[in-house]
Amino acid sequence: MSNNSSNGPQSFLGSMAFGGIFFLAGSLIVLIAADIIHADPSSFNAPRWVVGAAGGVFMIAGIMVALQGSFGPGGMQTKLYLWLQFLFGMVLMVLFSSVFIWVGFGPGEREFSSSTSLGPVSVSGSGNMSMGRIMFGGGGIMMVFFTIAMAVSQLKAIFKK
Are strands 121-126 and 113-118 parallel, antiparallel or unpaired? Predict the structure, then answer.
């Protein structure tokens, strides 16, 4: 009988492939943001650091998926794995939060769109800039509080072992 939660070759290779795809996609975005891969500057609707942070989220997520697969179920209880999960998790959350906070509170104009679908009827148009900023800024602030709570919780778990 097959156990799906085992860390056999399929789950190890699958997590490496899946994590690798996310890492490569994020790397491409970071390289474009760093102007290593040239892109037309007029195509950017945000500062390069915001674009790089968004790419970094995918890179870190890919690393975390690959780590989980490489450590396996038994290895995920080790202090090394818990510390790596903590560090990469904090970086991921800081990058993710920073994008939302920039959209909500950063300088400049923002373009939001809204759409509503009810069965076969769909309505779309431009969104309210103030409401968009409130939603993104509020979400970013909530993510900061979630990040702090997650950090405290994970540190407690690490030091318990």
Answer: antiparallel
Q: HEC profile for 6-43?
A: CCCHHHHHHHHHHHHHHHHHHHHHHHHHCCCCCCCHHH
Q: Which two tokens stand for residue 142?
A: 């909530």
Summarised one tens digit per residue, pLDDT across range 54-89 is: 999 999 999 999 999 888 878 888 899 999 999 999
* Residue 75 covered by a domain: yes
- Which residue shows structure tokens 């997590």? 15
Helices (H), 76-128: 79-105
Q: Residue 54 sits in which domain range? A: 9-106+127-160
Distances from the Cα of 41 to the Cα of 33, 45, 54, 108, 111, angstroms: 10, 9, 17, 16, 18
Average pLDDT, rounded, for the chain: 90
Flag whether 156 is in a domain. Answer: yes
β-pair partners for 117: 122
- The C-alpha atoms of residue 154 and residue 161 are separated, in whole angstroms, by 11
Has residue 2 been placed in a domain? no
Section 132-146 average pLDDT? 95
Is 113 contained in some domain?
no
